[in-house]
Design a protein that fits this description.
Elements lengths: L3 H15 L3 H9 L3 E2 L6 E3 L23 E5 L2 H11 L3 E5 L14 H9 L2 E4 L6 H10 L2 E3 H5 L13 H18 L4 H26 L6 E4 L5 H6 L3 E4 H4 L1 H11 L3 E5 L5 H10 L2 E5 L15 H13 L12
Length: 323
Amino acid sequence: MPSLAATRAGRAGRRAATSASLALLAAALSAATTACGGPSAATVGSSGAGHAGKGGPATDAAPRSKRLEVVASAYPLAQLLSYIGGRDVKVVDLAGPGVQPQGLHLSRAQARTVASAPLVVDVGDGYQPAVEHAAASSGHELALLSVASPHVARPYQFWLDPSLMARAATAAAAAMSRLDPAAARRFDNGALDFQSVASSLSSDLQSNFSACTRQTFVTEDDAFARMASAFGLTDVAVSRSGIAAATSTVRSLSLPAVFAEAGNPSGLVRSVARRTGARVASLDPLEVAPEPGATALSYFAVMEQNLTNLEGPLACDTSGSFS
């Protein structure tokens, strides 16, 4: 029977074989330092992240002299667009490094960027009212939440469910293809490649979480509630349940850890930890772009790390999940 470490290595290797572009994307995102309208916006994709697999030629092609400029309202959307567009797009992340995107306010320069952009991709449904108002006024808005999850609007973090990100990839590629027909085949290939890796990731999540002794975990807010529901888990958000109820949950289920979230306040969940003796582990909701100089991991690498961080506290038996 393979060890847990060997299982994880095999899982990561399988996805690396599915798409060699993960490292290229991480390199591109780590170079996202060009300001656009102030320090809270950055240009992503200028390093030429391409996509392998499905015959996608963007990795091998030289950067075009004029690339399609796409504005993204949040870091996970910027990652998606960079993955799909490769060298054919320049992606501007409005939030920028270290900035919480929910409720983002726009500077005048950012508002001008939104107004002039050929395409503005946002979450929609009130996640960023100022961005959504400006984008709707421009007439070039693509709101991905309603595309990815038309029947369930909350919580906003649809990107934590890979199957919903796969739906979003189709819509994003179609929107970019309409604006740049010459690159349409490469956009389609990028979306197909993203969906292939997302499907593999979804299978891993389902296989691992279905083999867990525990199905409940405690977090600061409900960012992971959508992902939890998709894979048969329950996310108890302290911001919604309250400290007393969350403390009771930890004690009654003998949960060994509670989870702080990267880029978000963690005072409530740390209060639960102090009351119960549970350790504070970490999950990354993928909302906030890394600070300059920090290691920028791809969407898939972060989701893999979240899976690994949950496996121990949930007592998941992954030893027989993969050959």
